[in-house]
């Protein structure tokens, strides 16, 4: 990000700070503080990319988040959303894909600080060592985690989650068998290899166009506890706890700070709802109801 853009974000943050403080205070008072879920990819100091953050930056993120928010697991995040009660803004940490370098400093740091995290990996890439599709043509292809590393992460208290077999864009898959393999069989294979039950699934790419209603159903039928998207929404107590909306963790701290203290623009991001639920969903989100009561 350019210095100018970073400066603009700081100016925007400063100008909207009074609004943010008021919003967060009102929310906390009625137990409706947001639950935010971050997704990181690769934490490494060499070969930077738009999905890489340095170890130093990552530690700075954890320091800042820890000073202002409560770290929670995905399970605890869901519990608060389902209970419709969260008195303090909370943040859950997740990773996508499965980059080996994360095991050098980032994962040990989380373990040392007892910060819960969920680590989503693409089963086929892990088993074959094949680079992820978004790196296939890159000059540098970052090494992929091994199964042994995932077992160590699990043994250290991290939770392993599923991320399809080969990082498929499920929004483009309409073949039932192919979808079943990417969503269900890849998840079962991962559980068998890691020796841990898999409870969560994250959609690769994670934008609304990359989601798939049938995949939501398959995850429910398979007994998973929840699925994650990645288009940047917040999770408000009272919303659907099965679908967890996530925010990009990779960028600079100024952007993260802007998002986690509630960017008014991000509040209007529409929540993706599968077709079957759209029919029964109420038009008003918890957010609208709560603000309506308070203002
Ligand atoms: Zn991914």
UniProtKB/TrEMBL annotation:
The keyword Signal is assigned to this record: yes
GO terms for MF: hydrolase activity, acting on carbon-nitrogen (but not peptide) bonds
Subcellular location: Secreted
Recorded GO CC terms: extracellular region
GO BP annotations listed: carbohydrate metabolic process
InterPro entries referenced in this protein's UniProt entry, alphabetically: Glyco_hydro/deAcase_b/a-brl (IPR011330), NODB_dom (IPR002509), Polysacch_Deacetylase (IPR051398)
Gene3D superfamilies cross-referenced by the UniProt entry: Glycoside hydrolase/deacetylase
Keyword Cell inner membrane set for record: no
Principal location: secreted
NodB homology domain: residues covered: 89-295
Keywords: Signal
Entry-linked Pfam families: Polysacc_deac_1 (PF01522)
Protein name stated in the entry: Polysaccharide deacetylase family protein
Upper taxonomic lineage: Bacteria, Pseudomonadati, Planctomycetota, Planctomycetia, Pirellulales
């Amino acid at each position: 990000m350019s210095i100018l853009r970073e400066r603009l974000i700081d100016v925007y943050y400063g100008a909207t700070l009074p609004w943010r403080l008021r919003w967060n205070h009102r929310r906390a008072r009625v137990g409706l503080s947001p639950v935010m879920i971050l997704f990181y990819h690769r934490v490494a100091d060499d070969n930077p990319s738009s999905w890489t953050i340095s170890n130093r930056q990552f530690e700075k993120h954890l320091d800042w988040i820890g000073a202002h928010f409560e770290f929670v697991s995905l399970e605890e995040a869901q519990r608060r959303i389902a209970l419709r009660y969260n008195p303090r803004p909370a943040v859950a940490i997740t990773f996508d894909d499965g980059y080996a370098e994360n095991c050098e400093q980032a994962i040990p740091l989380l373990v040392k600080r007892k910060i819960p995290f969920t680590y989503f990996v693409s089963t086929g890439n892990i088993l074959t060592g094949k680079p992820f599709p978004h790196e296939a043509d890159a000059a540098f292809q970052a090494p992929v985690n091994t199964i042994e590393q995932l077992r160590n992460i699990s043994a250290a208290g991290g939770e392993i989650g599923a991320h399809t077999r080969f990082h498929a864009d499920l929004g483009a898959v309409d073949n039932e068998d192919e979808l079943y393999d990417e969503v269900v069989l890849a998840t079962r294979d991962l559980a068998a290899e890691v020796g841990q039950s898999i409870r969560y699934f994250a959609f690769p790419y994670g934008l609304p166009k990359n989601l798939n209603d049938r995949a939501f159903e398959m995850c429910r039928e398979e007994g998973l506890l929840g699925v994650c998207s990645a288009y940047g929404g917040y999770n408000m107590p009272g919303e659907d706890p099965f679908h967890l909306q996530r925010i990009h963790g990779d960028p600079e701290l100024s952007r993260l700070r802007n998002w986690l203290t509630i960017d008014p623009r991000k509040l209007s991001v529409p929540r993706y709802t599968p077709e079957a639920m759209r029919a029964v969903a109420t038009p008003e989100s918890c957010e609208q109801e709560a603000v309506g009561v308070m203002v």
